[in-house]
Write a structure and sequence with these properties.
Oligomer: single chain
Distance between the termini: 43 Å
Shape: elongated
Largest sheet: none
Radius of gyration: 12 Å
Structural class: mainly alpha
Length: 58
């Protein structure tokens, strides 16, 4: 099975986002909710996390 470069790039971004979410200082509930958002709404979820979710850390 061949994977396109775009899919591999997307997969890499998802993995980076999930690692960032899980390593962050958010509560367990917020981490779980952000992981669900990233999986349910893939592209928009990642964008939302980096725009809104990381702001919760401050």
């Amino acid at each position: 099975m061949e994977f396109s470069l775009g899919f591999m790039l997307y997969l890499l971004v998802v993995i980076i986002a999930l690692v960032d979410i899980l390593k962050g200082s958010l509560s367990l509930i917020k981490k779980l909710l952000w992981c669900i958002v990233v999986f349910v709404v893939p592209v928009a979820g990642i964008i939302l996390y980096y725009l809104v979710g990381r702001a919760d850390r401050a």
